[in-house]
Design goal:
about 210 residues; alpha/beta; 8 helices
Length: about 210
């Protein structure tokens, strides 16, 4: 898939998330949308299935999600009839917890290997097997300092086009969309690869 990133970003400036998704679907042969069922994820998932009901939904389940997140995931999957492809780490969390003595702190030398095992490896495996040419994601520029340097359309190191339809949206925008479409939400969420919310987990810095 060949996209002129500068031209695409210029063309999509000021467009709504729905218009951005429509552009993405129109310009790809094998799109997917990624989710971790964190807060507000039902927004991007709802928008994606409105544009393409059978779009592949990639969920890398680390095995460390909260009970509330798993219940939320099941509800959204059923409510939106999501075409979910779930990928999990090659090692169980129980075994890893023994070998690494729980979840390593960010300063621990084991943390990078932990992140590779529970997030990066299964994600890379998924991309290799599913072979998408375009990846819709829910990143927003107000989430981390790194993301403020990104644009709506970018490319992964493997050449997959990454599109962030919600890039310029705020929490208030997301709340309004949830209310308008009567969508569920869940704030009881935990990412074991992050110590704080505004820290990158590696997906958007390394892939």
């Amino acid at each position: 898939m060949s996209i002129d990133l500068a031209a695409a970003n210029a063309a999509l400036e000021g467009k709504t998330p729905q218009e951005i998704i429509a552009w993405a679907i129109e310009n790809s042969e094998s799109p997917l949308v990624t989710t971790n069922f964190r807060p507000y994820e039902s927004v991007i998932l709802h928008m994606a299935v409105q544009a393409k009901p059978d779009i592949k939904v990639l969920w890398v389940d680390s095995g460390y999600n909260t009970s509330a997140t798993y219940r939320f995931a099941e509800k959204v999957i059923q409510d939106l009839n999501l075409n979910v492809e779930t990928y999990i780490p090659q090692q169980t969390s129980a075994r890893r917890n023994v070998l690494m003595k729980g979840i390593p702190d960010v300063g621990d030398e084991l943390h990078d290997e932990f992140t590779r095992q529970v997030k990066l490896e299964p994600f890379q495996r998924a991309l290799a097997e599913l072979k998408p040419d375009l990846w819709l994601n829910a990143i927003r520029k107000d989430q981390t300092e790194f993301r403020q340097s990104l644009e709506i359309v970018s490319a992964s190191k493997d050449g997959i086009i990454k599109v962030a339809p919600l890039f310029n949206w705020t929490d208030a925008d997301l709340e309004a969309y949830l209310e308008q479409h009567n969508l569920p939400n869940e704030h009881d969420y935990f990412d074991p690869t992050k110590a704080v919310e505004n820290r990158e987990c590696g997906l958007h810095t390394q892939l």
